[in-house]
Write a structure and sequence with these properties.
Blueprint lengths: L4 H10 L1 H8 L16 E14 L2 E4 L2 E9 L4 E8 H5 L2 E13 L7 E14 L4 E16 L4 E11 L14 E12 L3 E15 L13 E13 L1
Antiparallel strand pairs: 1-2, 1-3, 1-11, 3-4, 4-5, 5-6, 6-7, 7-8, 8-9, 9-10, 10-11
Length: 229
């Protein structure tokens, strides 16, 4: 008998490690290239890990809202709130910054950016607070005078609570890989992204049927948009 969608949320959000690294990683890399100085942007995203549900393969429909501010032309500060997890009693937000390392205006037209974030979680049901730092990098190339962009990169979360509470938590770092396409206008950005999350973790003994590569990690698909001001 197939589980209703709500029961999947409860199972996933109550599974500590997989909730954090498979679901709370559920947003695309909205800002690949820094905003201009003093420019602001609000964003929203939808998507998540792929699961088997009612005989179909679908992404868990997690939602996020975000804000970004261009501190300089090379540095943007960011913040995001997980709105779906909040509805199920798990407050989640992150604070961080994006830094341009190599400008896409160079001769090869390939840019590189790096980002750092700190993710905060508060589970009201278990009265637990956790935080996880994240580091990542993007390589991107723009087309059609900057109106289109392809990008790829990797990031990793780090475990901050020791000793580990579960057998899988002995993984002190959690890598993720992503590739995506961004459609850009003067005011709007549209992101389409594919992620491979936690490739070093086996997904065969998890209560939810995640879709990974073989039996490792999970694949996720995401859509995001942002409005610049």
């Amino acid at each position: 008998m197939e589980r209703p969608l709500k029961s999947y949320y409860i199972l996933i959000l109550n599974g500590l490690l997989w909730a954090i690294f498979l679901l709370q990683s559920c947003s695309p890399i909205i800002h690949v290239k820094p905003l201009k100085t003093k420019q602001m942007a609000i964003s929203a995203s939808l998507g998540g890990p792929l699961i088997k549900f009612s005989g179909l393969v679908i992404p868990v429909p997690m939602t996020n809202l975000g804000f970004a501010y261009g501190l300089t032309n090379k540095t943007t500060i960011t913040s995001n709130v997980g709105t779906t997890s909040l509805a199920f009693g798990v407050g989640q937000m992150d604070l961080g910054f994006l830094r341009e390392i190599i400008s896409s205006e160079n001769k090869s037209k390939i840019g590189i950016s790096g980002f750092a974030k700190t993710h905060f979680f508060l589970d009201k049901w278990k009265s637990q607070f956790r935080w996880y730092p994240e580091l990542g990098i993007n390589v991107f190339k723009e087309f059609k005078e900057g109106k289109n962009m392809i990008y790829a990169g990797a990031s990793t979360w780090f475990e901050t609570k020791f000793p580990a509470e579960t057998s899988t938590s002995k993984n002190v770092w959690m890598p993720m890989f992503h590739v995506g396409f961004q459609k850009r206008t003067e005011k709007w950005n549209f992101n389409y992204e594919l992620k491979w999350i936690a490739p070093q973790m086996n997904n065969e003994k998890i209560v939810v049927d995640y879709i990974g590569i073989g039996s490792q990690g999970t694949l996720g698909i995401y859509f995001g948009l942002s409005r610049k001001f």
